[in-house]
Amino acid sequence: xxxxxxxxxxxxxxxxxxxxxxxxxxxxxxxxxxxxxxxxxxxxxxxxxxxxxxxxxxxxxxxxxxxxxxxxxxxxxxxxxxxxxxxxxxxxxxxxxxxxxxxxxxxxxxxxxxxxxxxxxxxxxxxxxxxxxxxxxxxxxxxxxxxxxxxxxxxxxxxxxxxxxxxxxxxxxxxxxxxxxxxxxxxxxxxxxxxxxxxxxxxxxxxxxxxxxxxxxxxxxxxxxxxxxxxxxxxxxxxxxxxxxxxxxxxxxxxxxxxxxxxxxxxxxxxxxxxxxxxxxxxxxxxxxxxxxxxxxxxxxxxxxxxxxxxxxxxxxxxxxxxxxxxxxxxxxxxxxxxxxxxxxxxxxxxxxxxxxxxxxxxxxxxxxxxxxxxxxxxxxxxxxxxxxxxxxxxxxxxxxxxxxxxxxxxxxxxxxxxxxxxxxxxxxxxx
Length: 432
Hints:
By secondary structure, the protein is of the alpha+beta class. Helices cover about 40% and strands about 20% of the residues.
């Protein structure tokens, strides 16, 4: 099978190359913003938005000196390589597609200094010399980079980006690999705040909390930056310290997630997780002036914890790493996973009276709430695998499998009989 993989390295450009990369990244930003302004103006006039081909024609005119939608002229666009400018238009087209498909918000104008990048899509224009740790890009020449790992496969494209005062290059490659055989068993994973990930086999991963570890220092740096005159030299120095600390927090989080997802994908043939809408879960509860929210401070702390864990990135990495290992990732509905008894299938809010403890009011089964959620997630994933396409919103789906898993985890001699569970208070029927 074909595998697409990116290899990211830190560049070591000279002064002239740094100036050129800043100019080219700025040109890409200007093209994106002007094209977005053009699309908005056409929409206000009742005209149909231009496609990628139409925007490329406008780009050719702008490079030849035609006025931009903002009224100014930018003949210096001709000095930048044309392919990265066209890729900026493709990014805008993709942003519109995601907006109409309700996968993202409406595209916004890009700001200087935020996510500056340029992409070279033509592999014929990229010369890669791994033996000497250098890469040649159009109108930049040979650039040296820190060679930290071997690049496997044929180069498809290269993306140059700027972050925290450093330039990086991400090289995407394509190669043919043998179809791997899945290893290990199936596992259900329940993500949380107190425990980052709880597995259905009884183990769990403690959270890293990279943001919380540096929150005090970050607040001190931000206060110092706020006291400076904006855009002054001292302000830029203070901002560089804030940016560098943010990068350190993000690097620690990504390293933790990569190590966790690699271990999970290599040891489990099927991974079942909840289909969580992280964006909706981490929305602000402040409300509006007319309708102010409640428990705003508590919800703000919860939102910070959720975003600090990186649940969405955790699922994104699991998605492709499980495929690389020949496994299968199953996302199941999250309704009542921590309120459903894995032994008798009884659903009630009283089953989970505290954040950590679960105790079924019907059969008396007790265990950690996160472990119960992981068991139910695995049960629903196995049921969904058997009955692909059926409605899985019902919380008792596959409860017999959940009962078997629950008894194995708790050390019972044998799983309960189908439809019943024996406890100290007697035999209870499954309430399905």
